[in-house]
Write a structure and sequence with these properties.
signal; glycosidase; Beta-hexosaminidase; globular; GH; about 575 residues; 18 helices; nine-stranded mixed β-sheet; alpha/beta; about 30% helix
């Protein structure tokens, strides 16, 4: 028989509020986000999920897989998701309820490193146990997430008679969070990692420190956090870091640390003022040109490459961070080095007056730190500026591509092309598409540009990277556009970024989700259908449904449309689809 539909109420608890959502009677089918690469369901049908349903891994023991199975079994048995649009399919009680999901992993030893195999196959027959097979534990976790989205209702129903083969298009799919400008408690970070996982993303890029605060308690340099954090209740201890890293492993998410240097280090001056240039100075001195600023935003300070003590302190930090984070990628920053800040130091002034250059200063710094990071068995990630900045950059000979990855954030496809054509691997975080903080206005005070009586906005939204990046902007971005096949192979993937000048825990979930979900799907299975056409139109209804399911799971994702649009398919589009 057809699955019955009822006009009912879906109660969604966000932790802060309860949403009462009337359920429509528009017909639909079960969806998975991100959309699987291969999804075969020739005769959509469902059966009951047994009250004693189990997930079994015969003769396979793995601490993180066991944790994931326990987590997903609890989710499946308690979520009782009620789709906004009830699925149209044959619901049968003539077959026994689904009793078991058998999970089989070929390689239990594969570590959670870049490019680990995340593929899986999921078969849910009309009779007998469902089967999930994967090469690695991490692929099995992705399959468990898919299975969880195929279960809904009360009593629980599960889609049957289907086959899925799935694997990501890109190996690096991440979210960057800046915890220096504003502090995020550990619980907020854990919730973010959990959300990354259910969206089948696999990297939490933790931009831990910056000029504004140094919240990481480094065992060998405790004064950096003691004096450079916002306070003793706003720092991360080694225990906190271990908790976050282990939580990441349990959810198949790598935690990549970033200690941004040599710029963005003003907070270091609280403990070591002698190794920081232009610390605690006004960022844009009155009457000076933009080119003569000391920082690109309030919060000045850069490490002094000419001071030997700089490297004594920094190497202790690097060593401790490498110990705290087992992840093979170490992000060393190297973005936005401002000439005026270095020029404010007398020793550097002398260096420059004797024929030295600012780029040579950076090369001294890189030559003094890059080999050390590599010696710790790390691949070094830098922001693109290190070789592409117009004023201060190093020659490519200083950064061997086999040990270096560059993360791009400026000039869209053009800079991606420059990076990969130079032989470097690239992570794409284009500010024009993937910066989640954009479009909320500028944060600097005493700003006369807003004193405007003829227009309600200023400067294209008032922030340097405005406008706001909508989910469709993110979904439609093709990170390998204009690249040859060989160049495209050097693009590891992408990251959306939430810089925290105007973000903190009160807005965290809504700033990231569901816009990051849009990138998650494009990097997992693409943004085109089997004919090669962009699929943003049909993705809208699916993302609406996924957003509501995330909210039900405790992720405060913002809405993308009125509920009316979901109940009236196609009526909110710019162009009406042909019948």
């Amino acid at each position: 028989m057809l699955l019955p539909f009822f006009n009912s109420i879906l109660i969604i608890s966000t932790g802060l509020a309860v949403l009462s959502v009337p359920i429509s009677t528009v017909e639909s089918t079960i969806q998975v986000w991100p959309k699987p690469r291969t999804f075969s369901w020739p005769q959509p049908q469902a059966t009951l999920l047994s009250p004693t349903f189990t997930i079994s891994t015969p003769n396979q023991i793995h601490i993180h897989l066991s944790s994931a199975i326990k987590r997903y079994l609890n989710l499946i048995q308690t979520e009782h998701h009620i789709p906004l649009v009830p699925p149209t399919l044959n619901f049968t009680t003539s077959t026994p309820p689904l009793q078991t999901l058998l999970v089989s992993v070929s390689d239990l030893t594969a570590p959670l490193h870049h490019n680990v195999n995340e593929s899986y196959t999921l078969t849910i027959p009309t009779w007998g146990p469902a089967k999930l097979t994967a090469e690695t534990v991490w692929g099995a976790m992705r399959g468990l997430e898919t299975f969880s989205q195929l279960v809904w209702g009360d009593p629980l129903r599960v889609a049957v008679g289907l086959y899925i083969w799935d694997a990501p298009l890109f190996a690096h799919r991440g979210v960057l969070l800046d915890t220096s400008r504003n502090y995020y408690p550990v619980e907020d970070i854990l919730r973010t990692i959990g959300a990354i996982s259910v969206n089948k993303m696999n990297v939490f890029h933790w931009h831990i420190t910056d000029s504004h605060s140094f919240p990481l308690l480094v065992p060998s340099e405790p004064d950096l956090a003691a004096k450079g954090s916002y306070g003793p209740d706003m720092l991360y201890t080694p225990y906190d870091v271990n908790r976050i890293v282990q939580f990441g492993l349990e959810h198949g998410v790598r935690v990549v640390p970033e200690i941004d240097t040599p710029a963005h280090t003003g907070s270091w001056a609280e403990a070591y003022p002698d190794i920081i240039t232009c610390a605690n100075m006004f960022w844009w001195p009155a009457g000076s040109k933009w080119e003569d600023r000391l920082a690109s935003e309030p919060g000045t300070g850069q490490l002094n490459p000419l001071n030997p003590k700089t490297y004594q302190v920094l190497k202790r930090v690097i060593n401790d961070v490498a110990t705290l984070f087992p992840e093979p990628f170490y992000h060393a920053g190297a973005d936005e080095i401002i000439p005026g800040c270095w020029k404010a130091d007398p020793a550097i002034q002398s260096f420059l007056s004797n024929g030295g250059t600012l780029s040579q200063l950076l090369e001294i710094f890189v030559n003094s730190t890059f080999p050390y990071i590599v010696s710790l068995n790390r691949t070094v990630v830098y922001w693109e500026d290190v070789i592409l900045d117009a004023n201060i950059k190093v020659p490519t000979t200083a950064l061997p591509p086999e040990h270096t990855i560059l993360q791009t954030w400026n000039n869209g496809h053009n800079n991606t092309k420059k990076i990969v054509s130079s032989g470097y691997r690239a992570i794409v975080s284009s500010a024009d598409f993937y910066y989640l903080d954009c479009g909320h206005g500028g944060f600097v005070g005493n700003d006369s540009q807003y004193d405007n009586q003829t227009s309600g906005t200023s400067g294209n939204g008032g922030s340097w990277c405005a406008p706001f990046k909508t989910w469709q902007t993110i979904y439609d971005y093709d990170i390998t556009y204009g690249l040859s096949k060989e160049e495209a192979n050097l693009v590891l993937g992408g990251e959306v970024a939430l810089w925290s000048e105007q973000a903190d825990p009160t807005v965290l979930d809504a700033r990231i989700w569901p816009r990051a979900s849009a990138m998650a799907e494009t990097l997992w299975s693409g943004n085109r259908d089997e004919t090669g056409k962009k699929r943003y139109a049909e993705a809208t209804d699916r993302l609406n449904e996924w957003r509501y399911r995330m909210v039900r799971r405790g992720i405060g994702a913002e809405p993308i449309q009125p509920l009316w649009c979901i109940r009236n398919p196609g009526m909110c589009n710019t162009v009406q689809s042909a019948a």
